[in-house]
Amino acid sequence: WSMAWLATGEMLIVERPGRLRIVRDGVLDPNSVGGFPAVYRQSGQGGFMDVVPHPDFAQNRLVYLTYGKPDDDGSMGTTTVVRGRFEGDRVVGVEEIFESVAWHGNNNHFSGRMTFDHEGYLYVAVGDRQALPDLLADHPAQDLTNHMGTIVRLHDDGRVPSDNPFIGHATALPEIWSYGHRNMQGLATDPISGVVWSNEHGPRGGDELNLILPGRNYGWPVVSHGINYDGSVFTLDEH
């Protein structure tokens, strides 16, 4: 589901059915890395999603994982971030630092991609959970009171930065950095400029490569070049 290089030269590999693996000297360890959540929402696109090391991994040994967290009765799930300290073949001191307000019974569009920028802020992509409201304008990706279809920006311990664009807005969650997204499957920081980019799965067509800027609305689903999988058009005529 994702791969990440460590400062030690080892590579971590996430497998969606709840496994974190490690490659040392070109050889895949047959055993999974222990310590991360044993209970997760695996159905559909759920499960373990992304893994990234802390920018100061060489000193603090911290790694971050996104996964589909189930509710108490397993009927819904949401994108969640945990972190822990990598020691040998285990991750210890695991703590949850972000639970998105994106609970839904659908098993798709969790996204869960992460990146750190050059200032050490953590960006987390939360998919729109394939919510299907009757009216496009009512889609949760256009509603700032939840995290569906957003990219959030956090301190490395999950705290909300004071300069996030929606701080102080009564009808917006403070973690949100950008919104109007569908299902981001890539999130990366340019190693030279430090800007954050996202690649986003559209429906049938409509895939996007976006420069992620604070407070921006990226349009989904009101504005899209995509169409429904059955060939019908879903965007409003005026757009």
UniProtKB/TrEMBL annotation:
Task: Give the Gene3D superfamilies listed for this entry.
Answer: TolB, C-terminal domain (2.120.10.30)
- Annotated membrane-spanning segments are none
Domain Glucose/Sorbosone dehydrogenase positions = 1-233
Entries under InterPro entries matching the protein:
6-blade_b-propeller_TolB-like, Glc/Sorbosone_DH, Quinoprot_gluc/sorb_DH_b-prop
The name under which this protein is listed is: Glucose/Sorbosone dehydrogenase domain-containing protein
Source organism per entry reads marine metagenome
Source lineage: unclassified sequences, metagenomes, ecological metagenomes
